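Follow-up to my earlier ticket, as requested here are the two runs.
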Amino acid sequence: MTTDERFEALEKTVGRQRMTITALVLVAVATAVMAAAPQSRDARFDQISAKSLWIENDAGETQAFLGVDETGGVLAIYNAAEERQVTLGATKASGRLAIYNTAGKRQATLAATQTGGRLLILDKTGTRIVGHIP
């Protein structure tokens, strides 16, 4: 075998190796992308454990919050401007529902405590209109 024939054989071998390596890299990248992609937009779970859950719309704006701490749990619902409109909370001693206006000021509260029920309604300035607190 002459030197030229050897170079031609070597070039063919290197060319095949390049093609093989390129194909393997593409397969590896495709596998990584498929593994990282969500498997289903409609996934179902039997149980999810978390201390808080923030729900956002497509624009990334908060629409709801569900959370817990050492005193109890809270559910907050927000409007399109990310202003809290309703909160529902619970502790060992009481439960509370609060409703807010679009300026974020509390307008009404309904609560149940160990001493009885409470009702509070405020006007837009924060002045009490109705208040029954035993």
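Run two:
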Amino acid sequence: MFEKRKLKKALLSNDVAAARAALTANRSLRYTDINHYRPLYWAINRKQDEMAIMLIEEFGDNPSNRLEYKPNAFFYMAMNGRLDLFKRYEEAYSIIIKTSLVDRSEWTLLHHAAYYGHGDFVRHLVEKGMDIKAKSDDGATPVYYAQKNGYQDIVAFLLDEEQKLAAINKEKEAQPTVAQKGWQKLDDQRIAHVREDKAIGYRFTEIFNFAAGDVTRISQNLVTKAESSAIARISADSADCRAAAAQLGISLDSKTTLLTAKSALPS
């Protein structure tokens, strides 16, 4: 009991050396309070990153483990905006940023980051592919909680990402069938290129829209069918963009202005 009191005191005062000494003296020593918070939760909630790193890396406190009804430590990182700490371990613990990683209320990490107003955390999760339209058990998306708590910068960002996602989904409707490979003309201003790399297990589709001046790139896992998409501007400096333009008989100048020409492919 005395050793546990020493550990608790060290944790509350953010005394990393004292906490290390207590845990080194008794590696089976663990402390949880009446609310089932363990030391790692305390460190994250108190923004004690050095303490958290020590607990994880020196004493094996796995941040992906849950205790009782509590969510795992990654959720506390999202709640408290500990983005650097999160980045340090998201790959090491194979954290897949997707809707299936939810707490008891079916909140994703993105729900928590948006609710507490951590814009940099929200942007990182979106970049990692977290579903911005995921719903909690009461049917609310992350943007709802950001709006509710007055985080207008996060609201604007998420709404903008929703518009981009809608544009991508619209473009994907024109995606060629998976049985087709190579160049496929969609219309006079759009052409798609599909290839598979079975060595890494992915299919890559590029849809060049010369009317809009952009290219949609879609990567699909051949086993899980999971997809990721991105839109970029068509560039005259890009070999694949020039190849696509050539297939349609369209020229690109150095400023990427589209110079129309007669289509090189039959309708």
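The only thing I checked on run two: The radius of gyration is 25 Å. Let me know what else you need.
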